[in-house]
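Hey,
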Amino acid sequence: MLNTKFAAVFLALALLPLLLFSQDQPKSPSQQPAPIGYQTAADAEQKKTLLLKDFQPHSMLHLAAHDVNRAKFYVIDVHNHTNDAARIEEHMPPARVLEVMNSTNVKTVVILTGMWGDKLQRVIDEMVKPYPGRFMVFTQLDWSKIDDPNFSEEMVTQLDDAVTRGARGLKFLKDFGLGVRDKSGKLIAIDDNRLNPVWEECGRLGIPVFIHTGDPEAFFHPIDGTNERYEELIEHPDWSFFGPEFPRLRELLEARNRVFAKHPKTTFVSLHMGWPENLDWVAQMLDEHPNVMVEFGAREAELGRQRLRTRELFLKYQDRILFGTDSGMDEAMYRNYFRWLETNDEDFDYWGYPGQGRWEIDGMGLPDAVLEKVYHGNAEKLFQEFMGTKGGKYDADGIYCDGCGYTTIENNLIMQVDYGIEVTSEHKRCLANGTEWPGAYYQGTPATGTSPCNGNWVTVRNNVFYNANACGMSFGGYANNVGGSAHDVYVNNTLYNSATQPGIAPTFRVRKKNDSSAGALTSTADFTGADKIRAFCQIAIQRNPHVGPE
């Protein structure tokens, strides 16, 4: 064994000079690398055969990268199609949707394509009702009825029904202006007079109109080597609107702006920024139409490649820009958007790269005050207008039923207020026989009365109250012998995230006539179902019979 090892070592030492000698020998001309030159290779064009789909270059830049796993402020995503009625996205278990939202600090998602009737109801039953405050849904028009002689009236009726069911806005897809045709084959113009009653009804109801008009500017150009979105149009040739059978992009947008101007009492949201390749035009639109807001769903690529101009727009119009994605439901997607909005990172992939074009984007590093508005503040103001509330910390009640009687309050969504609802008779005092006196309550001077005591016989049902700064629902009296209520019914109401200001009030409060604190629930743990609420109300009446005549 020893001899074998010795022989191997001896042989290696013997061959070493030969190896060194061979390395020192000059290479033949054919083995030499080409000299460094400055002329284009003669066969360069013949070698340019790499397919575009196989060209995946890796950037050699050494740049800072800052991951943003959760948004700095909670988010309302106003442009999504998760589990919608039109099935634009594949269905996802609601538990998984909530998992994505919770892990990224997305508080509420607006499902825009809810359709109408039973299909709308299914979305409400699956996504809205079981998860109060987490989802909202919009309705749409039924274009199959466009040739009906009473189309306008039918759509107004359909819209009213959708809002009664729980829809919180009206959504128009890009087929409006590009694909919807009447029986003669003519495209329905965006400013078609048959839509005027619909626009007006939206204003009357206080619901916003989210409208997608046109598409990326490149979609209106030939699909050839000059088109910056060539790959996307090859994958989706039906997205090409180049040709005489389609209106030009500017024509579509100008028709839509005429609608904005004609209906100033209706709030419109121009989806996808309107014309993201032309932000000067977007700024002019916002200046000329104060009833218009914008959102940037699926336009991160367009906006991110023009950082300075986009940031300037966001700062100037910070009260009119909404956060939207239109990109499915995925943690990585949200985090990519957060990185774009919150950091100053440079030269990184937009979400979906290279689907919309072969370029990178830069982060905007928006100030906190602007971020908070874009993430949720502007959306809350938009939907508070629908609810008829102004919101804000310790601001006002969502619904204040002072002295109302024989009233039903139903099918409301109330958020970001002081009290979600108060039912009382703050400015009237009730006699034991169920009558009232009209004198000043602080004087306590009785007077003869025959009308029912105000604040009585009120039904509150099928409402959603959330983000009440003080208390979700309250009924009864105030301190100093003021107010009262009786024969009131509360049924099938949802309270979520109420009493957000600690120490102010509980989620649900029953106020005794002569004392504003006694008899109040002290925490949301005191009730978890209708039986506990009902039991507590019975106890409250027994302790203070002046709460009601029973």
